[in-house]
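Q: For a teaching handout, I want to show students what a protein-ligand complex looks like in token form. Below are the inputs, and the small molecule is magnesium ion. Please produce the holo structure.
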Amino acid sequence: MQNLLHNLNPEQLAAVTLPAQSALILAGAGSGKTRVLTTRIAWLIQTGQVSPAGILAVTFTNKAAKEMTARLGAMLPINTRGMWLGTFHGLCNRLLRAHYRDAGLPQTFQILDSQDQLSAIKRLLKSLNVDDEKYPPRNLMYFINNAKEQGLRAHDVEANDDYNRKFVELYAAYDHQCQREGVVDFAELLLRTYELLTRNQPLREHYQARFKHILVDEFQDTNNLQYNWLKLMAGEHNAVFAVGDDDQSIYAFRGANVGNMVAFEREFRVQNLIKLEQNYRSHGHILDAANTLIANNSKRLGKNLRTDAGHGEQLRVYEASSDIQEANWIIEEAKSLIAEGAARSEIAILYRSNAQSRVIEHALFTAGIPYRVYGGQRFFERAEIKHAIAYLQLMDNPHNDSAFLRVVNFPTRGIGARSIEQLQDAARQYGISLYAAVPYVTGKAGSSLGSFVKLVEGMRFETQNLPLQEMVKVMLDMSGLIPHYQNEKEGADRIENLEQLVSAAMLFVSEEGFGIDAPAFLGPKGQQVAGEALTTADGVEVLDADAPLPTVMSPLSAFLSHASLEAGDNQAQAGQDALQLMTVHSAKGLEFDAVFITGLEEGLFPHENSAQEEGGLEEERRLMYVAITRAKKRLYLSFSQTRMLHGQTRYNMKSRFFDELPEEALKWLSPRVQPQWFGHRKSAWDEAPEAGANKIAQSFSRKDAGWRIGETVMHQKFGEGVIVNIEGGGTNMRAHINFGKHGMKLLDLGIAKLEKV
Ligand code: ATP
Ligand code: MG
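A: Here is the structure, written as tokens, with magnesium ion included.
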């Protein structure tokens, strides 16, 4: 057996080997929190304090769960498959699959991702004839998710006015629709599990007896429901080992409550609060930058980070005139990093918003550099994949109305809007699913719908007992999707993606091991259980605490859950040594040798939306702290004077975060354009109480303060033109001006006689 502990510093060692009581490890980025958590699991098992089946570990993403599983596998000679290690959603899904009856769900319940949820809500509003301008679907979705995250069902929500009463009524109708269709949204996965365990004492006691050790990474980003869920799982006696960093709390917009850390300390009677202050990830300048920046936040629990690594290199700052130029600069820098021997996968390009990736992707593509995008449009969110998945969903659960509507006439088979209306009427009248309502529709509509039902039944019949990837192939053949796309102009890509789905199914089967081990047993109530099913004195089905992996899903159900839950991974690009592109949010917990933080502009990062929210700027600053602390050795910061976003050119000021970084840690690569020569784009920040840092902006809101990009000017010879770029500084300023039919001119602003128009 290897010595798990020899690579730890004294504080880490203390944390790993704490007695079996609840503990909080509060520590900054890169101080080894995740490493401590993983090592503690291994240590608990190795010292015989708990069997792998007695561990419940929660990670923030599926990717993190995979990595942790792999690390544990390397540390210990055990089969990690039986461990309950995953995200809150993944773990709840597993629990609900095992106890679907008690949870009041059909065995083949399916998961709505947020896109599906929104379309389910739109459909609901339509069926109830609700004005979707007055009650926007997105607002309703937010309302519902927010209520669920507070643990509230529709009848628990207090509404003080008619408008909110309507929302509550729609929330109830939405839940009803989901129940009828056998689908659950993300928040429902958690709430349903929470309610199940609250209500069902034997089941709760079973899991409490089983999971003696509960470990949670990224604890600062738990929401209230997750926190209460943990409380329920822990009961009176189990040890919850929570690690987190309040400075990295970046999901408040999704209900995360950093106050849970304080509550945890009190409610779990934490006697062991351990701080880790040694950073092992980043060089000194990078760490200084992170520390100096985050010191501008007021609401902090307080801790420090130091490193033994030297100062290292300064942070390289680049100012581009356009987003395209910024992208080209990134490519050049990345190329020279690679030429110096850096692995592509050790280079990350981070951005605040997904929309920024397009220009960078284009430049990478043109330069022929392999890259991989996380987040953004996920493989499983592409239209053609959604269609294919809808067929698979119908094969698994024909009562999923969303899936039904998506493909009933796709590819077209002569089922028009009128027929669908007839069908919806019948379904409403009898309170049944669309699929079940088909026999009630008569005439021509009835017979075309009947053929569709036959098609789905045929697919189910043909694929019985087939391995998953064969099922997918049969579905592709029978559905007519491939021939449909063959006739489409840009269909080749889509067909390729559909073929990719077969590979995704194959990969899934091999990774999850379906059909290889895990013999299936039927539980006392007929549910499929791999491993041993036990019945308690109360007749509750539970799983033997030491049984192997309880695989209660069919491979198809499991694959469909995976399609909904898998964090944004572009599978088509998997497995290559590629540059890593992602939002700052999805970079949480990761580390890279070299990191680019791009688009550091006011309104973009910090993002303008957060100006309206209380504490919005502090959250943006934490996000910047997360971004900076991803870098081990080299960090690049860039911003651009102009940027095309959402079809508009924006003229930007550099991010205020530059003023919050230590000057000595920065190395400016481009000549600095004096900020006063930028016009001030009025932004919501000016009114925000936290806008004190925006001093520069405020002193230049006067119109005559200088030349502005985007400003119209008059030249004696060339006539009217628009300033598109300004370069240089001080007395040496030049501007690119577009003079229409005279073309683009580069003029020295000190010499050219320009007038404002
Ligand atoms: P984050 O807050 O970003 O999630 P973290 O606190 O979880 O960071 P880890 O990812 O666990 O930090 O560790 C950061 C890096 O430091 C990893 O590469 C890890 O292997 C390394 N590391 C942690 N502890 C030690 C140690 N005692 N000796 C050497 N390297 C260490
Ligand atoms: Mg971590």
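A: Two things your students might notice: Residues 315-378+571-668 form a domain with the Rossmann fold fold (CATH 3.40.50.300). Residues 33-34, 217, 589 surround magnesium ion (ligand 2) (CB under 6 Å).
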